[in-house]
Each structure stands twice: as structure tokens, then as C-alpha cells.
Amino acid sequence: GTLAGMGIPQLGGYKPTARIYKLGLLLAASLTVCTTLWMVSSSLTSGSSSLVSDIIGGKGHNKNNNNHYNSIQPATTDGNDLLAGHLPAARVSYDQPAEGERVNAAIVALVRNSELDGLRKSIRMFEDRFNRRYKYPYVLLNDQNFTQEFRDGIAAITKNEVRYGVLDSDHWGYSPSVTPEMTEKKLAENKNRYLYGGSLSYRFMCRFQSGLFYKHPLLRDLDWYWRLEPDVEYYCDLDYDPFVFMRDRGIKYGFTIAPREGRRTVETLWHHTREWIKDNVELLPEKSLVNWVMGTDGHYNLCHFWSNFEIVDLSLYRSAAYESYFNYLDNAQGFFYERWGDAPIHSIAATLLLEKGQIHWFEDIGYKHPGNMHCPRDPDMHSKCICDPGKAYTYRSACQSRFAKVNNMARERMLEIIRNSEREYQLHGSSEGTV
Where are its TM segments located (predicted)? Predict the structure, then answer.
């Protein structure tokens, strides 16, 4: 075939072959590609140097809070990380403190050294959703000394202040009313009856969380606390401070999830509670939300606020009424001979001592503790949350529904119901646990 037949023009009288012409086009294309790649590479190198300088030099950060950036390893300068640029940009925006005042509060966790990974996960989500901006300190408590590995692991996940405390035998030990020998016998009897039925450390934990944690030196001067635990998840951005929200509205107790307690773990708890009520009427308010935990039959319906999440004005636990209630229970042996949990004790006390307006359901805080989860179903919250409201336990919970329906009860009415239920029990016998 001729050149004309192939559609190739003749240049300046020269008649190139088809092979030479194609080679020229190939060389021109290659030169264009090489030039483009060189320009892109130069641009990336310049941008990478700037990003590396920002990371190492702490550009844009508070000089007093850049200790974690100084420990970044050279591997951080990997090309993929720098090309995206997400890490430095996110850290800059996340570290900007939210406006407004803070209250005298801390985020408190009781944790073992072996739970480092679970607590790192919880703190990471808690930081991302709330505390990266509000910067409340963490108080971590342990019945053993914290290891250096644990401290380093936490330091790597938050730049906020972390205070470490160890529990002594006064905080982590037996009730004065029990003996180790009888406790061992009861643990063996209850081992297969319910979860943690045979666990001594779980009893220590429940007793500590029920009436001793707020007496620890690291919490003694706090006005508020927010409980955090390993392996929990926070699903929704919080653009306000729940502590300030509660303080400004006179709210003393905040919760997210309200399930029912296992009946076998609290077989005599309500009996002792009623005995304490009758002996301490003068410590009780004129009206309270007690009928959230007490059915019309005068017995405990097993509803409780799941205390692995709670935000509390510590004046509640430091009150004469709460101290009296806890001390009474501590002498009743149920922490060790049964398995009284801090959740039902906190919940019964809160509803005995507070009115409904002083207890708040944080429906907008998406939260999961292994076993149950809450996810807001308000469409306006969907842009702030990463969870499925259809899977939320809270909207199926009878106790959660009951909280929305009940109102305050007068103290005299409560006492009347208790007296009537005792007479009914003496005549016919009864059982606790109806909602």
C-alpha cells in the first residue's frame, strides 16, 4: 500500500515510510507522558515536605500538647498517608477546644491492665465523638499498679490529661458483714445460677462501684463524673457538653439504656430496700420517681439504668440518704452472698431520691456495651450517627417505655403501697419482678 492510500500526508517533498512515521508519533507521546509525570512528582514532593514539616514541627498545634507528634516514627511519612493528608488535617481540627465553660468533672474508668486494648478502643471513639474538643481529664482506677505498657498505650491514644489511681483494701475488699469462708461457699452455690455467679472479683467491683468509687482520692474533689468502660462504642457526634446541659437544668442522673436485672442476682435486695425505707423516711423527698422501679404490687420490677454508662452529679452519691442506703446494704451481705450489682442499687437510689425532672435519658447519645445498644431514631440525628436505629434495644425495652410513662409519686403513697404489699405477702405470698 502507498502512503497516500494510508492517509499519511507527504511532508516537504520527503516521503517517509509508514514505520518511521509511527515511530515519530510514539516518541512524541512518550515525551509528553514523561514531562507530565515529572511535573506531578515535583508537586507531590513539595507538598510532602510541607506536610512532614507540619507533623514534626507541630505546626498549628498548641506547643504544650504536641508531645505525641514528636514520637511519630519515620514510617508516618509513607507516600500514601501524605498524599491523602487526612491525618494531619483531622488532628488540627479535632484539637480545637470547644467554646464555653467546663464543669469540675472527669471521665472515670475502672480497668485492668489486661483490658488495655478494649479501653484504647473506647477512648478512641469517645475522643472522636466528644472529648477531643471538650478535653475533660480521664481518671483510670485499677486494683493493681498500672504497667508502663498500659500507660504508654493510653498516652498514644489521647492528648488529654490522664490520672492513674490504685485501689487499697478499703475500696477493694469484703463487706464488714461477710466472711471469706461463707463467701466461698456462696460463690460455689451460685456459680452456675447466673453470670459471674462464682466470681469474687466481680463482687469486689460491684461493691466498689456502688458506694466507694467516689471516695477515692482522685474523685474526692470532683463535682461530676462520666463512667467509661473497655469495649464500649459511641456512635454519635456530641456538639454540646452533657455536664453543662445537666447542671443548667438541675439534672442529677443521666443514662442511655434501661434493661431488667436478673432476678436471681437480687433475690433479697428489695426486701432490704423496703426495710431501709421504713427506717429512714425522714431522708426521703416528698415525691420521687420510685414507681419506675416499684410496681403497683409494691415489689421491685427489676428495671434499672445500665450503669456502665452514667453521667452523675456526685452530690447524689455523697448525700446523707445515699450514704445511709449503701451502708445498710453493705451490712446486709447481699454483695457477696448474692450478686447485687451497682446498676440496680444506683437505679433504686436515684429513683427514691430524685424527681423525674432530675433524671434524663440521653436519647441522642448512640452507645453500645456488649449485650445491648442504643441508636437514636430521630431522622435529624442520622447525619451525626453511624448506627442502625432498627437494631436499638432501647425502643423495645419495657423499662425504657415505662420511664416515658411514669411520673412522680408522693412519699406517703409509696409507703402505703409498701405496707399493703407486706400485708398481701403475709396472707398469700407473692413474688417480685413484675413491670
Answer: 20-40
User: Range with the lowest mean pLDDT among 84-88, 175-179, 182-186, 200-204?
Assistant: 84-88
Cα-based distances in Å from 286 to 272, 282, 289, 352, 411: 21, 9, 11, 10, 5
The Cα–Cα gap between 84 and 72 comes to: 17
Contact criterion met (CB below 8 Å) for 153 and 120 = yes
Mean pLDDT of the chain: 84
Q: Is 184 a catalytic residue?
A: no
CA Rg value for the chain = 31
Identify the residue whose cell numbers are 474533689: 221
The mean pLDDT value for 254-260 works out to 98
Instruction: Read off the pTM.
Output: 0.78
- With a CB cutoff of 8 Å and minimum separation 6, the contacts of 238 are 129, 130, 364, 365
Residue 223's Cα: distance from chain center in Å? Answer: 19
Contacts of 36 (CB under 8 A, 6+ apart): none
Among candidates 185, 252, 263, which has minimal Cα distance to 223? Answer: 252
SS3 call for 101? coil
- DSSP structure string for 125-151: HHIIIIIHHH-PPEEEEESSPPPHHHH
Per-residue pLDDT tens digits for 151-169: 999 999 999 999 999 999 9
**List of residues 6+ apart from 66 with CB closer than 8 A:** 58
Cα angle value 242/133/311 (rounded, 5°): 25
pLDDT at residue 351 in the model: 98
Asked whether 323 and 316 are in contact (CB, 8 A), the reply is no
Among the listed residues 115, 127, 310, 432, the single catalytic one is 310
Q: Which residue has the higher pLDDT, 311 or 428?
A: 311
DSSP state of 309: S
The 10s digit of each residue's pLDDT in 328-365 is 999 999 999 999 999 999 999 999 999 999 999 999 99
Given this model, what pLDDT does residue 24 score?
61
Q: Which residue has the cell 493528608?
A: 85
Nearest CA to 266 out of 214, 309, 223, 301 is that of 301
> How far is residue 203's CA from residue 208's CA, in Å, rounded to a whole number?
8
Grid coordinates representing 115? 483490658
The alpha carbon torsion through 213, 219, 222, 223 (nearest 10 deg) reads 0
